[in-house]
Amino acid sequence: MDRLTPVEQRAPGRWQVATVASIVQETPRVKSFRLRLPMWVPHLPGQHYDVRLTAPDGYRAQRSYSIASSPLDAGEIELTVDRLADGEVSPYFHDVLVEGHAVEVRGPFAAYFVWRGEAPALLIGGGSGVVPLMAMLRHRRRTMPELAMRLVYSVHSAEDVIYAAELGGDAQLTYTREPPADWTGHSGRIDGAMIGAAAAALLLDHGLPAARIGPTG
Ligand SMILES: Cc1cc2nc3c(=O)[nH]c(=O)nc-3n(C[C@H](O)[C@H](O)[C@H](O)COP(=O)(O)OP(=O)(O)OC[C@H]3O[C@@H](n4cnc5c(N)ncnc54)[C@H](O)[C@@H]3O)c2cc1C
């Protein structure tokens, strides 16, 4: 019998050593890390990677980080990390990792919601919870810009807006602590009125006649 052709084992499930290709300071506390992966496989927007750090004495710490990039960025993933002052792994990312460094990763894995590009979506998140939602927005902009998708995004203040330069008309912000002086949009926590307005805009984008959109009860 013929022998099977050897096939290189690829992620997920297997740890691999990624290289830091570039780093972007998104906000005073948040940085995005572009990692180049030798065993890259396409992910679904919403999936995450596990990251593992190993100290010289063998002590290990492992954390999960959502993928911020579109799967169209072949060979690379972007992780966006919020620095927790007294954390173990996120300060290492911020204070130690530089371009060219190696970091062990494993993935992609799904934990909560993944977007398969099949349906319009209303995305709601705050703080670093926006990271997996950004992967969905970025991917939708590149693959099906005509599909209705809206992001409702809650931040403390203007300096906390991750991906600020990339947020366009498909994103609605609310500032929970310090809105900018000239801000005319929503302030305070995400509430029913804000979600209702975003849902109505989404339905209009989706082609539903305005007359058919209204409160249900
Ligand atoms: C599916 C998934 C996706 C995620 N995606 C992202 C993402 O995209 N971006 C992101 O920034 N994070 C993300 N996270 C969170 C991330 O995995 C880490 O939890 C986060 O970075 C903190 O890790 P750390 O090692 O820096 O802090 P840790 O060392 O884990 O500490 C976290 C906090 O707990 C406190 N703490 C630790 N030990 C104790 C103790 N014994 N008693 C009391 N308090 C304690 C610390 O002081 C600190 O404030 C995600 C998590 C999951 C599960």
Summary of the model, kept short:
The chain has helices spanning 89-95, 130-143, 192-205, and strands at residues 16-27, 30-36, 48-54, 60-66, 76-82, 102-109, 121-126, 149-157, 171-178, 186-187. Strand 3 and strand 4 form a beta hairpin.
Protein architecture, described:
With 217 residues, the protein is of the alpha/beta class. 16% of the residues lie in helices and 34% in strands. It is built from 3 helices and 10 strands, in the order βββββαββαβββα. The chain has helices spanning 89-95, 130-143, 192-205; strands spanning 16-27, 30-36, 48-54, 60-66, 76-82, 102-109, 121-126, 149-157, 171-178, 186-187. The strands form 2 sheets. Strands 4-3-6-1-2-5 form a 6-stranded antiparallel sheet, covered by helices on one side. Strands 7-8-9-10 form a 4-stranded parallel sheet, with helices on both faces. The longest helix has 14 residues, at 130-143. Bound molecules: flavin-adenine dinucleotide.
Q: Over the alpha carbons, how many angstroms does the gyration radius reach?
A: 20 Å
Helix coverage percent of residues? 10-25%
- Structural shape: globular
What are the secondary-structure elements, in order, as H or E? EEEEEHEEHEEEH
Distance between the termini: 68 Å
Main β-sheet, in a few words? 6 strands, antiparallel
Spatial order of strands in the largest sheet:
4-3-6-1-2-5
Please report which band the strand proportion falls in: under 5%, 5-15%, 15-25%, 25-35%, 35-45% or over 45%: 25-35%
Structural class: alpha/beta
Q: Hetero groups bound?
A: flavin-adenine dinucleotide
Unreliable stretches: none
Number of helices: 3
Q: What average pLDDT do the residues reach?
A: 92
User: What is the number of strand segments?
Assistant: 10
